[in-house]
Amino acid sequence: RTDGLPAWTVAAAVSALRGFAKREPLLRRSRLQICCEPLWLCVLLHAAVGSGHLLVRVSMCLLHAFAHVFGEEELPAFWPLVQALGADLLKQGRLSAAATISAQMLNYQSGIRPPYVPALSLHVAASAQYAPVSSDVLFFRFRLPGAPGFIRILQMLTAEARAQGIQFARPVIMDASQKSLSFTEISRFRALALLPHVPYAQRLPDVFALNSPTLVPALPLLHKYVWPYAGPFCGRTDSELSQALDPTAANTSSHPFSPFAFQGKVFQPDRFDEDRRYWAQYTEWELWPHLIRFKSRGCDMLGRCSLWSDRSGGFFPRAIRILSMLWPRWSWC
Asked: What is the pLDDT of residues 227-240, one digit of tens each?
């Protein structure tokens, strides 16, 4: 196609997958086929080859990136395949969700409720455990959207403190441009800090399995990071088609607020406060226990991590006054 519109039909995609499965040696001899993302491809694969060797793990939104391949006119042909997958795999225990919000959204869209089986990263726990060798704090994968402003504020606070002779633990910023750290290397930091970029990220269970003290934003600060780029969870950075509902589905969840209304293309921070608060409770950042939650981008985070000296004197009150003048609409502590 030269018009930029999706070229596939659901029927053609299922036929192509069926032919591919017959020709592909690995699929022909495999005893287990694990499918995860995109979830709609798992639906098509099930329609093509059946459930004999298929295990499906729900992670992201059902229709994430669906619009890259199919048009809206293909949804009537797609929804019956979704129902067939649910009816087939649920009774066999071959369908589960890695995140609570993924299970809730799938139920909201299609009436299918997969059991929530959290990712525990047992492979990480088997390879490394918390064993700090310094007071350094690792800001784990910290170049995601929203992080630069956070880092700038942290740098201002630490620079002011050091100018007064107060020594903080050294923050180490880890991003994608650097050499990856092994889990053993990560376990040697005094603490870890994470900023969300979506409602569920695999890096959370990975570091959780290390038993390392882990700092994450608390509500309401969490909203600033978890929703703006949540396209994989039917958010505004994906097509509006990802929020489509199966009009014939039964047993859909009855939530007091839609998971989609507050994630519209136009960001409206003055609306949908209750919606955001309601759906935040289903994010893994709120559900997982033993996380150290901080409420501000500055002093509260440093306090939770115990990064300052007992001899800090009047540093924090002065720092808070400076930050309040620069960003008067933020509550810093």
From this structure: 988 999 999 999 99
